[in-house]
Amino acid sequence: MNRDEQVTRLPTTASGLGDADAARTTYHIYHEKDYHKRLQSKIDLECESPRSAVKRAARTAKKKTKNGVVVDTEAEPDLHLDTEHEHSGCAFFQHVPYLAFHDPPKVLYAGEDKHAPPVVLMNGSAFWRRYKLQYGDSLAADVLDPRGVVAWKHNGGSKKELKADGMMLKGYKVRTWRLWGESGKAYVHQVKASRIGGTSPDPDAQPMKDEHVAQVEGVVYLNWDRPLSLHTRQYHFRYGDVDFYWKGTSTIKKPSVFGMFVRYNHLKLIAKIPIKEEPDPTLLQEVCLGKYASSVSGKKCGRLELYDSVILRLSKDCLRHIDAPQHNERIEVLSLKETWLYRIIVATAVCMIDAEKEKRRAVGEWLQDAGEGGGG
């Protein structure tokens, strides 16, 4: 029998979450210094496109306030995201460390900046074919140095050994020289001064035999699934016993004039799970867990909307997470955002966004080179 796939959405419980805003979290993804990214639930009006609905609503609200008219806050839900519940665990930061002649992994922090605990290392590969996501509580210790890369004392071994064991980390030495723009300027100067004066141990010294070398607790691989097909916008990763897919969607519509330019940049996250009512385990249904809508603003990547209640139900039913009985789904959702499943979903979204952007840039350069070659 062929595998039969159905598109559906898991039902949400009636307790705790009564409105749509409470059942989901919307992350607005903004550029930070061109290459880092901020993921936050609070809207930054300075980074929004002048033609966006949010900015138009803000101008309307400001105009009404000036004229002495009472503004209906319920009519502008996107402008009121400052509640304690919505901002608890609703921020991530992607740091992109730069070391000349190296390609260190990007780091996802569970907070508003790189001073928050690091949770996922995102290692890329050539032509965006694969991302290795290393995660675990061990990253929250002194594994990363002030440059944002793994300290040399936690280097797991040679290139061959690191390839054989995904739990091991690749460390980076502190060089005696530094190129302009590299990460950790103050730290590199501090290490150089201490080496000259001998005031503190060298961070690149050979570790002692009894010194602990950190390893991550888990690894997830995000693969560009079908690059040579009609479904080029599809990425796959597996967590636990569940297969997840980022894939293109046409259900997101942008009413603005520039909406047509990002029509093919939107994606959705689905999980394939067995149908409980069917005895055949090969019969699967697709459950939508969230969507990503691209933005035309130069300061904003887009908007990531995750269906927290659906992810919570999936986590309970299929992954056996958050097993402790709870009577308040709001508390369960807050606990969900601290699980590795939720953080991995966010990390895969960031990797997918980066890959899609780089592919569009590469295609644009290829077309430009082809046009110049044809004109010549």
Q: How would you sum up this structure in a few lines?
A:
By secondary structure, the protein is of the alpha+beta class.
Explained architecture:
The longest helix has 36 residues, at 340-375. Strands 2-3-4-5-6-7-8-9-10-11-12-13 form a twelve-stranded antiparallel β-barrel. The chain folds into two domains: 1-11 and 22-42 and 88-96 and 105-136 and 221-376, no CATH class; 141-216, no CATH class. The protein is an alpha+beta fold and 376 residues long. It contains seven helices and 13 strands.
Instruction: Identify low-pLDDT runs.
Output: 1-22, 70-88, 257-262
Number of domains: 2
Question: Strand order within the widest sheet?
Answer: 2-3-4-5-6-7-8-9-10-11-12-13
> How many β-strand runs?
13
**What general form does the structure show?**
globular
Give the termini distance in whole angstroms. 56 Å
Please give the share of residues in helix: 10-25%
Radius of gyration: 23 Å
Main sheet overview: 12 strands, antiparallel, barrel
Please state roughly what percent of the residues sit in beta strands, choosing from under 5%, 5-15%, 15-25%, 25-35%, 35-45% or over 45%. 15-25%
Strand pairing plus helix content: what structural class? Answer: alpha+beta
Q: Which sequence of SSEs, written as H and E, runs from N to C?
A: EEEHHEEEEHHEEEEEEHHH
Tally of helical runs? 7
Mean pLDDT: 80
How do the strands and helices of this protein lay out in sequence?
Blueprint lengths: L4 E4 L16 E8 L3 E5 L12 H14 L17 H4 L3 E5 L10 E4 L8 E6 L6 E6 L23 H6 L20 H13 L20 E7 L9 E6 L2 E7 L18 E8 L9 E11 L5 E7 L1 H10 L11 H8 L3 H36 L1
Parallel strand pairs: 1-12
Antiparallel strand pairs: 2-3, 2-13, 3-4, 4-5, 5-6, 6-7, 7-8, 8-9, 9-10, 10-11, 11-12, 12-13
Helix pairs in contact: 5-6
